[in-house]
């Protein structure tokens, strides 16, 4: 499978790339700083570019089957500025499947119907700026023609991969407080071959 990974130098994105190469997929990454990619693999294509540049996105999309976005907010609006380019390029190229990494804050609230978690008392975060960025991306994907899935982890420590976790469509599993980067990456990559959560948010936690 030909997979484009965006955000491949981040914690989750780099782990997805590692697992995908191990599984034998053909991986393309679009990165601003290629020197940050320290893996050499004949199935890895590194394109230097910027997700904010429409031409770079179009170039990276060519021949892809699936797009996985692990772009982070990082105190910027890169996520929301790049997503229209990503969606537009996919629709023009006829690529349907996209899996993105979101946040548990954009899942539905269990305590306050019709609200998202970050809008309710379920969220303990004082700042909602990053979650609002993910919320905007969620709305963009809903308006698109793509087969999207948003993987919504809660607290993401760098811990060993357990290979088992709980999932809940549109909600965070009850009592879930953390999920490792490694298990999040494993589940995200699995969605490239799965139709279980198309056009859905999925909460993941131990």
Question: Secondary-structure map with pairings?
Answer:
Layout lengths: L1 E5 L4 H12 L3 E6 L12 E5 L5 H8 L4 E4 L8 H16 L3 E5 L27 H15 L3 E7 L12 E4 L11 H10 L9 E6 L1
Parallel strand pairs: 1-2, 1-4, 2-3, 4-5, 5-6, 6-8
Antiparallel strand pairs: 7-8
Helix pairs in contact: 1-5, 2-3, 3-4
Give keywords.
globular, 8 strands, eight-stranded mixed beta sheet, Rossmann fold, 206 residues, alpha/beta, 5 helices
Question: Helix proportion of residues, in percent?
Answer: 25-40%
Radius of gyration, rounded?
Answer: 16 Å
Which structural class is indicated by helix and strand composition? alpha/beta
Mean pLDDT: 96
Total helix count?
5
Distance between the termini: 29 Å
CATH fold title:
Rossmann fold
Question: Which CATH-level-2 architecture?
Answer: 3-Layer(aba) Sandwich
Shape: globular
What is the count of β-strands?
Answer: 8
Note the beta-strand portion. Answer: 15-25%
Q: Could you give me the name of the CATH homologous superfamily?
A: NAD(P)-binding Rossmann-like Domain
Largest sheet: 8 strands, mixed
């Amino acid at each position: 499978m030909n997979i484009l990974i965006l955000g491949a130098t981040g914690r989750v994105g780099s782990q997805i790339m590692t697992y995908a190469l191990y599984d034998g997929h053909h991986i393309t990454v679009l990165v601003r700083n290629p020197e940050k990619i320290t893996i050499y693999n004949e199935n890895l294509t590194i394109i230097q570019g910027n997700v904010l540049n429409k031409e770079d996105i179009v170039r990276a999309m060519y021949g892809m089957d699936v797009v996985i976005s692990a772009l982070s907010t990082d105190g910027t609006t890169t996520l929301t500025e790049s997503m229209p380019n990503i969606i537009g390029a996919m629709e023009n190229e006829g690529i349907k499947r996209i899996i993105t990494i979101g946040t548990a804050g954009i899942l539905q609230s269990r305590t306050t119907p019709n609200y998202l978690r970050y809008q309710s008392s379920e969220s303990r975060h004082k700042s909602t700026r990053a979650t609002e960025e993910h919320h905007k991306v969620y709305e963009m994907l809903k308006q698109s023609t793509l087969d999207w899935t948003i993987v919504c982890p809660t607290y993401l420590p760098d811990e060993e991969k357990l290979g088992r976790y709980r999932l809940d469509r549109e909600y965070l599993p009850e009592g879930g407080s953390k999920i490792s980067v490694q298990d999040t990456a494993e589940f995200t990559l699995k969605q490239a071959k799965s139709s279980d959560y198309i056009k859905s948010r999925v909460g993941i936690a131990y």
